[in-house]
Amino acid sequence: MPVDASPAKRTSASPGGRLTLALRTLRGTLSTLLLIAAPRHPAQVIVLGFAGAVAAGTGLLMLPVATPGPGGASLLEALFTATSAVCVTGLITVDTPVFWSRFGQVVILALIQIGGFGVMSFGTLLGVLTARKLGLKSRLSAAAETKSAGFGDVRRVLVGVLTITLLVEVVLALVLMLRFMAGYGYPPGEALWQGVFHSISSFNNAGFALYSDNLMGFVADPWVCLPIAAAVIIGGLGFPVLFELRRQYRRPIHWSMNTKLVLAGSAVLLAAGTVFITAVEWSNPATLGRLNPGDRILAGFFQSVITRTAGFNSIDIGQMQPESWMGMDILMFIGGGPAGTAGGLKITTFAVLFFILSTELRGGTAVNIFGKRLSRAVHRQAIAVVLLAIALVVGSTIFLMLISDFGQEQILFEVISAFATVGLSTGITAGMPPAGQIVLILLMLIGRLGPVTLGTALALRHRPVLYEYPKERPLIG
């Protein structure tokens, strides 16, 4: 997130005109929700659900009550913020604690919670709690979004997701509230609000903060940084991993390949990221150099945790070394675990590619991971997702370089952060031209929906083939 983002200049349109535009946006939301009712592929339903949530959030944020002063947010400001919240990204073009009123901040928080839980999962859960029954389309959509093993366990999965979400968020909110009261003298009401907001933003890997400099004021406070980092890690593992750990935490030999890959990959990336960021920034007076050695390690660890998915920052990202940006680009691109609140292309995707490469270099014929053979269909899915993501990142970077005056390193960082729904920024988000901000909006939507919808589409498009063409090998390398 930008650490120096200032509130964008509001337009001079009358409050009545803004209210009319906001109401029109909300009416458009209803039309979108009606489209969802039509029978569609689960991936299409998920896309329409997220679009409806973004449209509703945009309309609410454009209401005059969403900003403290006269007037209100422009369409682009509201749309960018709503998209960033629903996609649990955290990129901002305006200063969250200054530009938005308490009502606007509550709207952002609600969008974060819905987006992190999953729009279709959230809607399906409401159906479970009210009507206590699920239609086939609801089961299909929720199963696709949560990566459920089958349609029959959707209800159990959704209730489990809700339980874990509330448990982690309540515990973290209480810890932060007590710290804000005891360590910083906040009154109980304000401490509770700060704790709740940052708890939901942390577990959902959103990165929104109620401070203009994000969390830089707490860079040396382990009672704030470590609980937030723990919530980010838990949310970033993915709900399937959390479910399995809850059931079989004492029997790792029975863990699935997905759980083992996510846990091993997370440990390696957290350690490598901590060592890399701390080493490169150790003597940088604008970031870690001004801190004592213990606080430097804390800040390096916190930024390593956050970089893979969440978007908080306890040091000034814009003042970091270009080498750090490049290393963080890789961490952001990889992301966290699947079927959770994390972003990126997911640890499992890159782990699959790593084992494919390792097998090929050793001259093997089958890819074996933790004593299990990997399906060849997964090979193609992983390669397709990564290649499409690289093409999108490269194309967006070139386009933004053509329409803005920022450097390639900053733009690449911004593009990957948006696509991986991380939310970190070198401070150029607010300075992007409107066309550039629209590109970032699209990247956030594609990044949040792409791995889900593409993976679902590839998994469900199984067609029996009654013939095969003769084989031939082109020259490789």
How would you explain this protein's 3D organization?
The protein is mostly helical. The chain has one domain. 64% of the residues lie in helices and 1% in strands. The chain has helices at 15-36, 42-61, 75-86, 96-99, 102-117, 119-130, 136-146, 154-184, 188-203, 222-237, 239-248, 257-281, 293-307, 322-334, 347-361, 376-403, 408-419, 434-460, and strands at residues 368-369, 372-373. The protein has a two-stranded antiparallel ribbon with strand order 1-2. The two termini are 41 Å apart. The model is unreliable at 2-12, 33-39, 126-132 and 134-142 (pLDDT under 50).
For the record, the count of structural domains works out to 1
The general outline is globular
- Alpha-carbon distance between the two ends: 41 Å
Average pLDDT number: 83
